[in-house]
Amino acid sequence: MGLETLIALVVLLPLAGAALNGFFGQLHGKRLSGYLACAVMAASFACAASAVAGLSGLSPASRSVTSVLYTWMDASSLRVEMAFTLDPLSGVMILVVTGVGFLIHVYSLGYMAHDDGRVRYFSYLNLFVFFMLVLVLGASMPVMFLGWEGVGLCSYLLIGFWFEDAAKATAGKKAFLTNRVGDMFFALGMFSLFWATYQAGSGTLAFAGLKANKHLIEQATVGAVPLATFAALCLFIGATGKSAQIPLYVWLPDAMAGPTPVSALIHAATMVTAGVYMVARMSWLYQMAPGVMELVAWIGALTALFAAAIGLAATDIKKVLAYSTISQLGYMFLGVGVGGYVAGIFHLVTHAFFKGLLFLGAGSVIHGCHGNQDIRKMGGLKDKMPWTFWTFLVATWAIAGLPPFAGFVSKDEILYEAYNSPHGSLALWLAGVVAAVMTAFYMFRLFTLTFLGAPRMGKKDFDHVHESPAVMTVPLAVLAGLSAVGGALNLPGGIAHALHLPRVLSDWLAPVFPVEATAHASNEWALMGASVLVALAGTLGALHVYYRQKTVPVADNARLTVPVRMARDKFYVDEAYDILIVKPVRGLGRFLAGPIDKRVIDRVLAELPPAVAYWLSARVTSLQNGNVQAYAVVLFGGTVAILAYLTLYLR
Amino acid sequence: MLTAIVFYILATLCVVTAVLTVTLANPVTCALSLIACLMCLAGLFAQLSAGYVAILQVLVYAGAIMVLFLFVVMLLNLTREEADEGTFGTARALTSLVCVAFLLDLYVFVDAAVGTRDFTEALEGFGSLAGVGEALFSRYLVPFEVISLLLTAAVVGVVAITRRQLSVSKASEPLKVAR
Amino acid sequence: MTPAPIHYLVVSALLFTTGVVGVLTRRNMLVILMAIELMLNGANLAFVAFSRMHHQLDGQVVSVFVMTVAAAEAAIGLAIVVQLFRQRGTVRVDETTLLRG
After folding, report:
1. Chain B positions with Cβ closer than 8 Å to A
2. Nearest to B48 among C37, C48, C82 (CB)
3. DSSP string spanning chain B?
């Protein structure tokens, strides 16, 4: 099979699975639907792997293969192909999406075994993977946007999967609407790029074409602002929506209403990283807008700090992980914002491993505890769920940034870039380091409260806790393995140099990203040491507080200090948004619906035309009286008129 | 001179009887005045050296067609005819206006087409039975045959239309005479 | 003053228009059929007059055809009138405003 065919297969297999389950799922039964979904994912992963293998066989400069399916739009100056491009960057992404996606599908077999909506679930999940692949493989911005919107749709469908519960349906709506704000800016950015190239006579939206017309975009302006800055900013706002950054992060914690494997796949491993991927994909654009890059870095750093702070006080196991995800996404943006695109993508990959694992582990815990998600009521699960315990430990270890697991390597690289890159600064590095302390702290807090210590649930409940079936624990084990050794993908420069080992990911991605030599700095070991120290500090602090002193977070407001209470209440951001945005918009809506629509629109547009038509028709009706002679008179009159015209005309 | 006198007499009679045809209340008198009109027309045809057409006019029109008309009129034995023909309303005023305009139109056309042209001397045997017959069976052979088909179709059609459909009639109360 | 083509044509126009008036104003379907005959004859007169004017026989031949068509038309029309009278008991067009039998 040619590479083009493989690429098309990677994308289309999940779509076929979604269609088969969606349209015929009720026919072939609930049991089969899950296996079908897993099978297409396995096939898709196999295709992706062989496609990437095929790609690696090409010379580094020519590693970009485009598979054109058909012409999507053709409007003279705007021509968009339904085309997918496989290059090193999208190659990494499809491996993550199909690989982690496959594991999560398998896990779902066990997790959703008793749910009546399994067929629908697997259909949505396949559909999501399809759209995610369209997003990362899309050869042009509209195709990417198609995937971008598609994953948003699937996210909405899966968050509100149990839509009988009004709160869950509302969470889905919130995610959808918040994303819409970002999507609008994404579209604006896309249009402005097209406009810039169109002005110069070569309108295009393909990534390759845009990149080739870089100079046009550099020269164009929007008012007094360089167009590159404007477009980069719009696209980044789009990214903050999809990737849950300040100020549009509020939907992600609520998105935990969906089934836990969905949180793992969509809201941790893949979809939310789309923004990072997009910034990396458009790196050449961001290089032209250093101001926006700085903004990206700072938004990322602040989000990392802010979400970590909320994570310190959260008590719902999935909410902790959700804020942790936001925080880690902040890290990725910090990475790409300072020009460390490889570092950002690297963290994206390792994060997909360990955060996917954490969510799956959390799902396993919830599954074992029969739906309980409150870590204050857990504890002591270590012996009850050994597989979950050990894998969760690996993931926690990784995310906390303790060597030698994957999280340490990738996070360290981001911090290294934040300090050493020409776009970086000490302040950014410090923000990252503080966030790292908090990360280690809240993760070990979560881990300790869940698995260690004495059980805090009723004896009867505790007796019922059980380890999850193998279909769930095997994916956990695989992900744990990946979380442990994932760091080898891109060893820290110093170590790689010392051991004469290749930096696989950096070399692989080198053709994609603008070459900006971050000098091999001598401070690498010092920075690495600092990373290890802060991670250790956070870890030991958490263990001290929650393991040694056996502290359990309390719900009672009176016994909480003000900062903790604020963090627990998520710094009242939701409430502020409610007052500043939701309430005014609702009020406007009510105003438009009431006085404007009912009094004005209905009167003028809905009642007046029929009245006029009725009046006219009453006049006209008398003409249609069924009397043939009357018709004949009119007909003859018309003939005479034409004759008269002809006589006058011929004269 | 004699031709002119004959023409004016015939033309006047023709128009007057035509007007009577469309204005008289009783269909029988209408039919009779139409016969008179057609006779006068036959005279005009004869004046125009169309002897054969004139003969046909008398035989076919006045003889056959109008007899058919009279026959139907009497067969139906209409009683309440035209009693409430109505007043001269806006509809009829409009109709008259349209017709007057039409007449003016026609005059303008005819005047433009003919103007003051005069007839030249007719050729020997023009319009005779032999002449028209030759034209009918040579140049106009195909139309002539088609016309015969049309007549056959008409005959069949008349039979089909007037045949009483007993089954239908029984079901839907036939002969709802008068209300 | 010998009659010129224009005279015959004026008579023809008068006959035709009279027929039109009859068709448009009369309510009795029989009379309407008669008015149609008037119109046809008005046209016939024009044909014959032109035939004479141009020394061409075609006009006369056509007028023969018109007569034949008129015969067919009269036969069919009268058949319809008879049938209508059977169904509705009237031959007034203003009372037969519905197509439904």
Report:
1. 91, 94-95, 98, 101-102, 105, 108-109, 112
2. C48
3. -HHHHHHHHHHHHHHHHHHHHHH-SSHHHHHHHHHHHHHHHHHHHHHTT-HHHHHHIIIIIIIIIHHHHHHHHHHHT--STTTT-----HHHHHHHHHHHHHHHHHHHHHHHHTTT--PPPPPTTTT-HHHHHHHHHTTTHHHHHHHHHHHHHHHHHHHHHHS--HHHHHHT-S-----
pLDDT digit string (tens) for A170-198?
Answer: 999 999 999 999 999 999 999 999 988 88
- With beta carbons under 8 A apart, name residues in chain A contacting C22: none
End-to-end CA distance of chain A: 79
In this predicted model, what pLDDT tens digit does every residue of A193-237 receive, in sequence order?
A: 998 888 877 788 899 988 888 888 888 888 888 999 999 999 999
Domains of chain B, residue spans = 1-79
| The pair of three-digit structure tokens given for residue B91, joined into one six-digit string | 């509809």
Contacts of A54 (CB under 8 A, 6+ apart): A3, A6
The CATH number assigned to the domain with range B1-79 reads 1.20.120.1200
The range of the structural domain enclosing residue C42 comes to 5-90
> Which candidate in A624, A628, A631 is best for mutational testing of the C interface (most C CBs within 10 A)?
A628
Q: Examine residue C69 and state whether it is found in any structural domain, yes or no.
A: yes
Q: What is the ipTM of this complex?
A: 0.90
Q: Would residue C96 count as lying in a domain?
A: no
SS3 A226: strand
